[in-house]
Amino acid sequence: MTGQDRLPPAGAFAEAADPAKLSAKALDMLFPMHLRIDAAGMICHAGPTMQKLRPDQAFVGRAFLDMFELTQRRAIASMPDLLAEVGRKLRLRLRDAPRTALKGLVVPVEDGGAILNASFGISFGDALRTYPLHSGDFAPTDLTIELLYLAEANAAVTQAYRKLGLRLQGAKIAAEEQAYTDTLTGLKNRRAMDHVLARLIRSGQSFSLTHLDLDYFKQVNDSHGHAAGDFVLQHVAALMVGETREADIVARVGGDEFVLIFPRLIKRHRIEEIARRLIDRLEVPVQYDGRICRISCSMGTTLSTFYDPPRAEQMLADADRALYLSKKAGRAQHRFFDPDPVARPDEGRNAG
């Protein structure tokens, strides 16, 4: 036993003021985790904090050794055994769960009983997580109060950091979303399209890519102004989103140019159906501020299965070639890229 562990001999306690003569209220204030045990080993009183450890059980009237297990090397099975430990630190715990470890010190009283005062010791953290404890549950001079304040401060700082982390994460997500979004239409932008294309190519799954260009959009801007043009672009964006699946990607990659990516869709008749619907719906006149805006669209599509392996730059260029053929055929058309170089016509483009 170290010098710090040495306690006065048992006789010294007898010479001191008898703690049994203190009122229960005084004992509760000084030692909120104490137990008053009579000569037969029965609990006569429990401090308020000790009672908090078992709020649904009554300590009073029960045998101390029936409720508590002492984990000393020396067996303690009776009241005389317990009194023999006067002057020594006790290790004890309740016999039923939760079995939080406690430290204790027993002091004899004149009637042959004892007062046992306990504390959580290094189990303080476990106790805070297990029981509804606060600063009022400890004597004002108890160092546990300082630990409690530190724990509360640490919890407050941790919570603040957690909230800050969530806000930063939200801001990061919002910034990334903004970086991948076309501000006018709310569609994906060119950067997002490049990201999706790279991911699809890495995954090895098949997909189709369609390049769509608005016909007669320049006339809308020239005749009705850029506000009308912006309104038409927003109308077009909403229409394309409505005509495509949730998994499909619709991106605005230029002033009046769009790219549509259809994961796991390479059936030509299905792609043709989608293209036809888009062309038909985009030819419906758009009203803006009492004026009629007329547009159409031309489209060109290529399939990832045309390539081994597919490359994003090549697919975009080939979809653009197919789009040029649609323009050349009279606009309001859709064409598939022909991977056969022999059958491929002049590849120059003069789309308007």
TrEMBL record:
Entries under SUPFAM superfamilies matching the protein: Nucleotide cyclase (SSF55073)
Transmembrane segments: none
NCBIfam families in the record: GGDEF
Protein name: Uncharacterized protein
Natural source organism: Pseudooceanicola algae
